[in-house]
Amino acid sequence: MATSAPHALRTPFLRNPSLSLSSKPTLSSVFPVSLSSRRRAAPRLVVVLSAARLDAKPTVLVAEKLGEAGLDLLKEFANVDCSYNLSPEELCTKISLCDALIVRSGTKVSREVFESSGGRLKVVGRAGVGIDNVDLGAATEFGCLVVNAPTANTVAAAEHGIALLTAMARNVAQADASVKAGKWQRNKYVGVSLVGKTLAVMGFGKVGSEVARRAKGLGMHVIAHDPYAPADRARAIGVELVSFDEALASADFISLHMPLTPATSKVLNDETFAKMKKGVRIVNVARGGVIDEDALVRALDGGIVAQAALDVFTVEPPPQGNTLVLHERVTATPHLGASTMEAQEGVAVEIAEAVVGALKGELAATAQLPLQVLTELKPYVVLAEKLGRLAVQLVAGGSGVKTVKVSYASARAPDDLDTRLLRAMITKGLIEPISDVFVNLVNADFTAKQRGLRITEERTVLDGSPESPLDSIQVQIANVESKFASAISESGEITVEGRVKDGVPHLTKVGSFEVDVSLEGSIILCRQVDQPGMIGTVGSILGEENVNVSFMSVGRIAPRKQAVMAIGVDDQPSKPALKRIGDVPAIEEFVFLKL
Prior knowledge:
single chain; alpha/beta; 7-stranded mixed β-sheet; 7-stranded parallel β-sheet; globular
């Protein structure tokens, strides 16, 4: 018997805050439960988001300068204490009297701060994008929500990207320095025109799409690469979504707007620079770590890259004498993307709205999970996140992930199975690999709604003993294309399914093919003609590359017809090794997936 139960996502007071309590994928760090003697006899994870005291205004401590518009919003709802330049000791002393804390990047919100709050602190607001200065694990443990203000800077960052683009094309910074040095070198600083040139926007999110709009107004031909951006949104502003390699090969200018994730770290490197047009020009107002800076210097010296304009660096500020910063054909600014008066005021308003919304309890309801539930679901939590990660990596670019269905098969009655934690971890797996947002139990539903992601749940009640909470979990993504066609089930969705065996999560189904591979390390999926010797052929290629195979399974439609081979590997094979696998005549398609 299957009952469909679409989860109704709440609409919060906030405009677009990105929330996080923990970035770790383990159960203990994302949802820690303390068993110390100070806790009640039956420990529970309790995250209370509404103001605890109903008979008085809450108190908000603003520890760094905030725009007046934001302060005015706060004062309508709360008592506001503006105390700047506090020492760590002074902050710990004050915090026990506060329900909320707002900081920028200069204040460290450490574990000691949460401990000193005595449980009263309900929300920390970071006026800006990054939350590196907040101890997220401690925030989770003490039931404190962390919000930031990621959208108010969008236009400012896009404008700075265009400013760097035009300044680079016309050598503005270099010519300015030359004139101030008493020189008049008109012939040396001849620039290039933007009209008719191709701009590749790498990352078509909020900032990337705004850069594209402005570049179109300058007469540029704009293409974009973003495997998870909806093609209709790109078409609406006259932008064509293309593959990563096509973007590199076609672009006269490249503007970077992707988050820094393991998949995008040093995504521009010696290999990718070699695929670009000679004389390409690069702008980066995203994250410094997406470029291999040593490789960029080599590309500049070798003439592959004509110029670069950089607002962000791997280490900020860059060390004295940094070769890249001092390069004659590099224009550098000190992370000014968000530095406009309007953006700073917008950040103040956005973070004030986020903090007020959290204190009003409009962000999410109280979350309570008994320790017994947490313990019992622990292996399924790992399975849920990994299925989400697998599913989103199978999506091809151009369609965008909007509709996800999760199916739970269990012998327990629906009322006996609390799936909030599993849904949160599937959301975590779907979103974290393609963004810089941290997802957990508290913010999962809001984060999904913020990205236009609708997740429905279906439960299938099985006959048998309800001793185990779940038999299997299936994740389906609808209305998308797949980079591995065999992952599309007969009903037309990307489908992955898994179960827990002896405490270890296993992938048991891809599309319509039954497989059985442990979800540890990474996975290679191959669709092949079912014939003798295939396991040995692929295993030999991996062995020659010193890649250890942890598991291998083959699912087939019928003997001597099509089959899908799932291979678990401990290490990532080199690109030449993957190419050799793809070149095996009987292999029709393959994909490498990181877990």
